[in-house]
């Protein structure tokens, strides 16, 4: 603001200076920091000489002045005369004084908010450290407890392993001698099958005693005469070499004539030709010549010839040995030794528990069928009756699966066992027929007159000495507990009962102990294989020695081996391993291996389902003995090969000596062999129903009739013998009102006759 006076002079009026108050003491470092004050209009009406700043009563010389800021140099030392904790800042402008705040010469203090934040952070860190310490202690304690538990488990497993090893060692040293000494007393006479049944089981393994060749052919009455005449003519045609060879060649040339058909046709031909073994042998040799020639011309691997039934000739060769070796098996040691081996395996496996469903056993030669767990079991002696004489009023029927069956997690239900029902020792068991109830009943009683009945389904369960589990063990080692379930589900791993999955000793999905048992390394149980092998080694060696004994060589073996040697020379095959392979494939591998794996083909016994694993190992050992190749064995090699690795050189020497000694014996001429074959035909004449075999064979003739007729018409010898016309007459005769139906499932065509009229007995052909 400007005023004008009388003397014409001007007066300027400026705003009064003002200072901003300090909210808290201003910290300064003596001798280093300047004191800065903020305000407004500081230099408008005053200059530096008009402004005086004092700190605690001592001057603070100005160093700078601006409109809104003032700077001065505070005293180097804190003023002593100040009455307050911090010196006061007083600014004097002219006659006006302003108290701006205080100056602190001490270290700067913390604000309350910052102090609170720092305090919370410190408390948080302390709590975190305490939590980490607690967690670490708990983790350490848990780890220590786990280590202690693992150590206890390891100690337990070590004790179990040691116990298992001791048991295996004791069994290996004591069980062998005891068992070998007891075997002759408990071995029954070998129950050889009759010739007819034996041949039928080998030639038709799926048909067995129900095959059509074992019963008369039945047709409708009004068709019987025509069919009889037609089958007679078919039989005459098969006795013609040209027709028979042409029919076989034509069928095998058809790509739809599969392996199953070749096997079946070969078996049927041998049944038809069995009554004329001389003619049969002549046709067989011709077919084998053609097969060998075909193999050499097409440069196939000659060593695999005769290994599989990929042709009618190979099947006929196996059947030829089957026919001619029956008397040899019954008369000499080979058949008896095979039965002793079967009986020995059966008895040894019955010494320990066996799972009823998986068929895994404590004592086995097969690693796949080894029960890899330990179960407590005890021997139970019972007495068996085949009548109902011991039934009493206290008898009760006990099924395999009932409300008392043990149910576990995972929807598993355990089969009942004799131990489950507390069957007493020295009980009396009574086997009743299936017709008396839904199941076979087995009754047991003791001196205390306790009686009951449990389910059974197989006669082999009624042995006089059984094993029964004390708690988790097997009540009957020869298949274990509920036999009725075994009969229907022995080979199944998914047995169910009203939605429950069934198991006996081990669950089918496992290969070890159940959840309630302590786990253990399953490989420790492989020592049982060695114990089983040591127990049965004598019987296996005796069997192989009897098979490859050159003291009593059947004429058919010598004759066929000489034929193979002759064929090798004709085709320039100089490699001795090829002929060795032919002989091994034709006889040991196609004949003996079949009987070893299926002893029920030769003996009147049930199919040995429970010892199939052991028999397969013995059969594999025989195959390895016939091999000329040395395989390098390692720890990863199959256990079946490792078990007999040390014995294999001895077995191979047996085979080599057998073939060498046979080749050195005098040759059997055709006349002598023909006389032997004629005697064979006379001895077993009428064993099979030839009309039934012709009927089965005709179904294949009808299927390939066009191709066979074309082949006959292009053959000069067939034309000279009017074979095409005779075949067409046969077809016309058979196709008059001919319809096809059969109830025999083994026929791949599913053809046959169905009537109540019996056509022809076998002795009328």
Automatic annotation (TrEMBL):
Top-level taxonomic group: Eukaryota
GO MF terms held by the record: semaphorin receptor activity
GO biological process: regulation of cell migration
Residues covered by the Plexin cytoplasmic RasGAP domain: 190-708
Keyword Transmembrane: yes
Plexin cytoplasmic RhoGTPase-binding domain residues: 395-430
Region (Disordered): 458-493
GO cellular component: plasma membrane; semaphorin receptor complex
Pfam family, one: Plexin_cytopl
Domain IPT/TIG: 32-101
Gene3D superfamilies to which the protein is assigned, alphabetical: GTPase Activation - p120gap, domain 1, Phosphatidylinositol 3-kinase Catalytic Subunit, Chain A, domain 1
Transmembrane segments: 114-136
PANTHER family xref list: PLEXIN (PTHR22625), PLEXIN A, ISOFORM A (PTHR22625:SF70)
Stated name of the protein: Plexin cytoplasmic RasGAP domain-containing protein
Organism encoding this protein: Caenorhabditis latens
